[in-house]
Design a protein that fits this description.
This protein is an alpha+beta fold. Among the domains are: about 110 residues; about 100 residues, no CATH class. Strand 9 and strand 10 form a beta hairpin. The longest helix is centred in the C-terminal third of the chain and has 55 residues.
Length: about 325
């Protein structure tokens, strides 16, 4: 009687299980479902569904493929987005994960943005966010990568960010650094270098007005400035050298040299090093011409003084001779 009871229980269990599973000789295979719609369809129930319907342990290789017109892999979790779509894990922890929100984690089971790469043991952590841009969006959003190098992995002190400022994703690329000793992350106000869509680069400023704008000091071994129209034309015989009287009149009226920017112009527009070098060289060459001209005049004066001295000496001799004749 006991054996008959056990046999009946086993048959009942087998019938119950087979009602939920479908293993036809051809067509779709279903586990946990009697009406599979795919080549292999697995349904699970219970509270531990976040680990997935198909759980492989140990040295098992698994591959998934789709048809010619369908996605190669298709996974569906709960509509609420709280369940993971794809997860690769071993004893060392989560290696690769796509959560229900579509965020991708590499080396972490809890991605904080669309892409979160976590490397332990003195590695580099990257947190990135991506957002599509189209012609109807007018700016105001920023996307990029943040770099984390602390145990908590919840804030980052450096980032590379693209800030959209116009239609079709037009914007600037910013390099952010935050040196505050707290748990705050970088923001757009921490930009240390900015590249505008025009190609202008700003260091220490987010509004560069030239190919390179630096708000601070620069130290270099050597700086080469290319310049055209170097003012050697000043030394040609056809150059009209202004008279010193003209220069003095200009200085009296403007309080700076001709062609040299005023203090107000420098304060407003800055100093063009290449152009200023040309102007300074022009003034040096003009000063050289003034010096040569004055030297020539001095030589002529010396000749005149010498001639006058000779005449004076001759007159003295003649006067002495006349005086002696009168005494006799």
């Amino acid at each position: 009687m006991k054996n008959l009871y056990l046999i009946s229980l086993a048959l009942l269990f087998s019938a119950t299980v087979s009602a939920q599973n479908t293993f036809p000789p051809g067509g779709n295979v279903g586990i946990g479902t009697s009406s599979p719609t795919s080549g292999l369809e697995i349904h699970t129930e219970g509270s531990n569904v976040n680990d997935g319907a198909l759980f492989l342990v140990g040295g098992v290789n698994a591959g998934f493929g789709g048809g010619a017109t369908l996605a190669g892999i298709k996974t569906i979790a709960g509509d609420g987005g709280q369940y993971n779509l794809f997860k690769v894990q071993n004893a060392g922890g989560v290696k690769f994960l796509i959560n229900g929100s579509g965020s991708l984690g590499i080396g972490t089971g809890f991605p904080q943005t669309k892409l979160h790469v976590n490397v332990t043991n003195n590695g580099l952590n990257i947190i990135g966010g991506f957002q599509n841009a189209n012609g109807t969006q007018t700016g105001g959003n920023a996307v990029g990568f943040g770099f984390v190098n602390e145990a908590e992995g919840t804030w980052w002190k450096a980032a590379i960010v693209h800030e959209r400022t116009g239609d079709y994703g037009i914007g600037s690329l910013k390099f952010l650094v935050n040196n505050s000793t707290d748990n705050s992350s970088v923001s757009l106000t921490d930009a240390k270098m900015t590249i505008l869509s025009s190609g202008y680069v700003g260091i220490g400023t987010t509004t560069p007005r030239e190919s390179l704008s630096v708000n601070g000091n620069i130290r270099a071994k050597q700086i080469k400035v290319e310049s055209a129209n170097w003012p050697d034309y000043v030394l040609k015989p056809t150059y009209q050298l202004p008279s010193l009287a003209e220069v003095k009149s200009y200085i009296d009226q403007n309080q700076h040299l001709p062609e040299i920017p005023s203090v107000d112009e420098i304060a407003k527009n800055g100093l063009n090093v290449g152009e200023m070098n040309k102007l300074l060289m022009k003034k040096v060459e003009e000063l050289t011409l003034y010096a040569i001209e004055n030297e020539q005049k001095d030589k002529e004066k010396d000749k005149l003084l010498t001639a006058l001295q000779e005449q004076i000496n001759l007159l003295k001799e003649q006067l002495t001779a006349i005086q002696k004749g009168n005494k006799n």
